[in-house]
Design goal:
The chain has five helices and five strands. The termini are far apart. The protein is of the alpha+beta class. The longest helix is centred in the C-terminal third of the chain and has 12 residues. Strand 3, helix 3 and strand 4 form a beta-alpha-beta unit. The C terminus is likely disordered. It has a three-stranded mixed sheet with strand order 3-4-5. A two-stranded antiparallel ribbon has the order 1-2.
Amino acid sequence: MQVSDVMTPTVHYVHPEQTLREIAIFMAELDVGALPVGEKNRLVGMITDRDIVIRGLAEGLDADAKVRDVMTPDVKYCYLDEKIDHVAHNMGEIQVRRLPVMNRDKRLVGIVSLGDIATKRGPEAAGDAIQHVSERRESKAAA
């Protein structure tokens, strides 16, 4: 089974210059916790509800701060023709619950989540990845 078999194909972009308030409202309307950030027809980041709270509000930014200030710019992604088991394993290793899905031309074509994998492939397919994502890892500063 490939990523294309389980991914969510509907993708909504946000722009890095939008405000955290705008994105929070948009996330609530869509009932999602993460959105890709696009600029000039390129994927430049991801923003999650956790980014808004931990990197934004907890750091003293207000709701008018920009997405660029809190997004994750180092975007990990997978390809739509990759095998689900491989992608789930990688998600556990890099500790992410969602990945943007790209075609081989590096165009965003969907999002895959551990929930998508568990729902469509079975809980065992996502189980190990969920365990690894949930583990707390030591920061490099502490090592």
